[in-house]
User: Fold this.
Amino acid sequence: MKCSSLTPVTMSIQPAYHGGPAWLANKLGYFEELCLDATLPVYRSGAPQVNEISTWSVGSAGSPPNIQGWTQGVLKTVGINNDESSTNALVANAKGIASWASILAAGTLGDTKITISPNSTGE
Assistant:
């Protein structure tokens, strides 16, 4: 593709599995081939990334920051790019486990409310 000019775009990433492909594409010049002048600010975790949402156009982040940004009305999640189920878990004490026995047996949370990490697992 022949580019008469490059369109600037800022893509926020984290030093994590989901940020790797964008970082590598930028390093190899793939964005320039698509007529994009890509800037990739790297955030240590999702909370500061969401806090600076006005400084970037598109980004990739984990589940907690996506939920945080959505509940604040500042972020729209358009896709999930990796399965984090093996690194996410519900934690409960003995009383909690006993009261959740029927939920575990059913294999679904149903209408049960749970608490999530308020910002990011990196916080």
Observations:
- The two ends are 42 Å apart (CA to CA).
- The helical segments are 20-27, 30-33, 46-51, 63-71, 94-99, 101-106.
- Residues 44 and 110 are 34 Å apart (CA to CA).
